[in-house]
Amino acid sequence: MSFFLKNSTYKNRSFHPDNQPFDIPKEKSSTKKDPEEDANISKPETPTALTDLQNLRHLYTYFTSLKCRECRTPIPLPNLETHVDKWLHTPNHRLQYLSTLQCPKCKRDTCIGCRQKPASIGLVGKIQEGAKKYRIRNCCGNGKLFSIWAFLSLMDEEAERALGGKLDTVSESERTKEENLDNLLRKYIPYLSHLVPISASEGKRNKITLSFFDEHPPVELFALYRCSAFVLNRIEVLMSHTSIKDLIEKSEFYAPIVEFLNSLVDHKMSSLIVDKWDWKGQSPGLKEFSEKEDSEMKSMQYWKQAGDSIATTCKDVFDQMSPFVNLLEKYDHNHPNGKATSSCLDSSIDLCRDLLKLRDKLAEHSPGDLPTIKPLPDDPWEAFCTTNHVAFSSSSLKEHYFAEQLDEKEFSADLGGKVLLELVGLSTGLEGGVFVMVSRKRPDAMKILVVGPEGPLEGGLFTFDIYLPPKWPTEPPRIQCTSTEDLFPKFSKFISLDREVSPLILSPEKTLLGQINTIVSLLSSESISASEKHTLQCQNIQYAMLPFLTKEAFTPTHKINSLSVWREVNSKYWDLHGKRVLERVKEWSIENRDLRSWITIMDDDESDLYNVDLLNMLAHALTSRGIPSSRT
Asked: How many Å apart are CA 273 and CA 148, to the nearest integer?
């Protein structure tokens, strides 16, 4: 007889230890079903607390009735803390089986799951540790079930000790206890992720043959998680009291948790996240539950009315994820195989991807819970701005004004999450006509392009380089105006003669979004005389329009990075607004005669002065771009 019998609404194979002889053949890794087992299919029934506890008790009875496969000497269940700790600290322990116990008499190893000699190959799973992937093996499906029981039971015991009492007595104000619980989850959750049954898609992707346990997870597996006092309840508490900001800033802690939830949802175990059950919470611990007799179980009142499911508690986080979708697409844009250069943003980006993956999977169960995606504006330029406010580039470091500072100090990877949050704020909060280019390798180095607002600088394109110093965000960023060369006048008292923005207006209390909006406001040039306005209009055309209409500005190999990195934005801007900008300049020329006769230095030749018609030059440059214009 097989270890597993169909027995639940989940249509999974039930672990059935009753009256099993100890020489039952070992379960083999196979995708084939035994036709004789169809006769054992029971009618679907709704899981109840008592059913879960009975399944748990049957499982525990099986685990505690182990005898040596050779001499038949009873092998007692070891102390879980000692047993797991020994496994964790054994050299190459990931090649050993946690379900293997040694006979105290003949010293032979016996698998507690199949009662036989541990398999030489076993079932394969994966776990991420640092930068390497380790393969962890289990002798058989039942051995895997024991490993899950051992980890969950141990976590319940350690959680109770960490709290100094029952699990429902914890107060959110007790920071030390909360940290102890988080450390406990951090320690064991990667192993639980490994022990989740492998889905068909994962098996195909990683070329792993699915075991019977993977294809038909037993109802006892569900009972283990539902009756456990700690894991799912703790995850529910964490996800209901967090925000996307907390998740990203603590990505190292939350990433394994989200990976674990994805593993559950990817399989038939999604019910543990999506469904509610009336006996959630206030468990005395898995091991204590396991040791109770059936008569005791019937009178136990540990369970309470169900609260929200984990899927429901995640909804607030999912609602905050929409702005990340476009940002993630930009992060991978134009990169080989969709992979970006290694960056301190990677861990935060990966967490966002996993959250979106979890959101989309849960949407298959509750599609109404997903936030509505806001449609793009009808105006082509507004739509372009919405999807291109923030972009990533491997070449944005080229000729960066703060290159020397970047070489002197590496950017702290700990700030990667903070930068990502700032970028999300930029992607949703920037005004139309403001664009940010971020370096993949050094996200503390950025470039900004601003379309001049209404006023004498209207229509011009102004570029800035940004550098986030080592003490950012407590220290404001350094921002340098780069597109105007030394010829451009000081058009604001907050921009120094060497064209660096004064830190006085870049309060560290402001977000990066607020600081960039401050830069935009400097271009308004309000309260100036008519003479100053006319001068700014002329210099706007000469230094903020004409350079962006040259052939070099649209050539990828152009050396002036402040222009070439903006090829896509530059091209779209002039195609959509070139004619309007020219009409605006014509309006200026009615009052500003300097536009038709501007005395200036041209082509970096400081020895000669030229008298040029800026309006005609602009019209000619636009015509060369294929934009119709009537010269005047």
From this structure: 17
